[in-house]
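Second attempt. The first submission of Juvenile hormone esterase binding protein had a stray character pasted in from the spreadsheet, which I only caught after the job came back as garbage. Lesson logged: always re-copy from the clean sequence file. Corrected sequence (243 aa) follows.
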Amino acid sequence: MNLVLRHVLTRQSLRLCDKIAYNNVPKQIAITSKCPIIQYRKYSEQGTETRKLPQLMEFPPIMWPSFIKYVKNWMFSNFIIRPYFDQEFSLNEFIEASKHAVQIVSGALQNSDFKTLEGLVDKDAINALKTAVSQLSVSQRQWLAIEKEDIFYAFPYQVGVIFDDSDKRWVEITMCYHVLRGLKNMKESGDMPPITLGAQPQYQDNIFILNYRFIREFTKGVEDSWWVNIVNHFQPHMLIKKM
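This time the job returned cleanly.
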């Protein structure tokens, strides 16, 4: 599996950054009323929780592109990264290759297969993810794995170049993926979802948004690979309800 990832992302060795902070799960307010109707509502809310996937990491959720950032991303890619860092760099190729990384990392998380993440994910981050995944129910864990063919929209939200005082330099790319679970099977059966699927209740529980941030060192003389230092999965309709 590691060889496949290294093939699609040049010299890939994905790692998640350490010292990731997580929010504590908020405590639910107890319902003390003896009214049977209230008790029924409490049961219904518990059923809703089983269909809700909490965010994996504390990171501001990204859902849509920014026009200003789109212009900056194009400039960084064509006027800095390609001429000075990597002449073969293509943002479009990176987007497609990054989907393979999403599939491998998310699949390992669903199966709690942290052994597979060794060498791809930082040790401290693996420990943090173990804690996060252990707090999910069995049904919630089933939401984690993402097939790359189920990604129907992907874009780089932000491309950045980082320098420090010792002339070290990195490129950081924050990606956003819109996912409809089961889209691959729909395509194969010819049963394509409507354009307005986001507003259709029957699709809402299967729509997910993923934020992954990739980083790679491009310091002269350093042979590095792309790492992942942010992994976040969430359901947009649940996020909107909180607003």
